[in-house]
Amino acid sequence: MAIGKKSFFQKLKEGLANTREGMVGRIESVVTGRKEFDEDMLEELEEALILSDIDMDTTEKIIRELRQDISRLSIKTADKLMQQIQNIVAYFLTTENGNELLEDLPLVILMVGVNGTGKTTSMAKIAHRLQQEGKTVMFAAADTFRAAAAEQLEIWGERVGVPVIRHGEGADPSAVIYDACQSAKARGIDVLICDTAGRLQTKRNLMNELGKMSKVIDREYPEASRETLLVLDAATGKNAISQAEQFNEAAEITGIVLTKLDGTAKGGIAITLTDRFNIPVKFVGVGEGMEDLQEFNPDDFAEALFAGSVGSERTES
């Protein structure tokens, strides 16, 4: 394993400490000391999962899988049961689409999400990551409604060495996107990352605004591949579900950026999001540093979540 990946796995373990203590701690308390894994135990596990920010539908699916696995694999010990729960969690974190950004260049990324989720800082961290891969990046400050949004993006642009296309406060966001597309094409930029308004408007207004931006990109930059990333604050727990519902209807989300995992016990929300919407988590944030937003890997996430529990196998070396 590469040193960088090992380092991030360690950060992921540390970032998930609160979630592990809550979610995995509850599961362990149900499993440990059981002489048999019966329906009473499964009912207690169901309650433990629901208390860990996993919604009812996803919880029922997990319990159904586990019930079948206990019989199919003849699971008799707590460590084997915990390992299988970890495997099931990894399975539910896996979607049909991959967890990496599209590789076809040029690429346009629309960043959506409510204010306060870490959208702007996530843009900077993704830009930094892309630059480390040798790609050129440009920002479009299309959140023209929030006071100082463009200024904030410009500050981040200066920090990471990324040019920013912006208009004045209150300008038409689609006009910013138009200029940014023209500039990105003229400069041969690999990835154009577009900030958008971070307010939960009425669904119709949100759809109209994002729809206009998408039409501009389709018309002015048809050769570009597209990603629409929804930034969610893990600390909001089940409130993230309603945000995902609204933005997915408005923008056809292609990936989720889950921020602030290191400051919450609600990291279990990732399981609900991927199961309910079949949208891959593409990045997770476990710290404030530029390197602390990393590509999401379902197996690593599940392993870090269950690290140190009965049945966990991976150790750092």
Please render the helix and strand layout as text.
Layout: H1 3-15, H2 17-31, H3 39-50, H4 56-72, H5 78-92, E1 107-112, H6 119-132, E2 137-141, H7 149-160, E3 164-165, H8 173-187, E4 191-195, H9 203-220, E5 225-233, H10 239-251, E6 255-259, H11 269-277, E7 281-285, E8 293-295, H12 298-306
Parallel strand pairs: 1-4, 1-5, 2-3, 2-4, 5-6, 6-7
Antiparallel strand pairs: 7-8
Q: Could you explain the architecture of this structure?
A:
With 317 residues, the protein is an alpha/beta fold. The chain has a domain at 107-253: Rossmann fold (3-Layer(aba) Sandwich). It contains twelve helices and eight strands. The protein has an eight-stranded mixed sheet, sandwiched between helices. Helix 1 (3-15) packs across helix 12, helix 9 crosses helix 10 (239-251) and helix 10 (239-251) packs parallel to helix 11 (269-277). The chain is elongated and about 70 Å long. The model has no long low-confidence stretch (mean pLDDT 88).
- Mean pLDDT metric: 88
And the CATH topology of the domain at 107-253?
Rossmann fold
Order of helices and strands: HHHHHEHEHEHEHEHEHEEH
- Helical residue percent band: 40-55%
CATH superfamily of the domain at 107-253: P-loop containing nucleotide triphosphate hydrolases
- From the N-terminal CA to the C-terminal CA, the straight-line distance is 10 Å
| Strand count | 8
The name of the CATH architecture of the domain at 107-253 is 3-Layer(aba) Sandwich
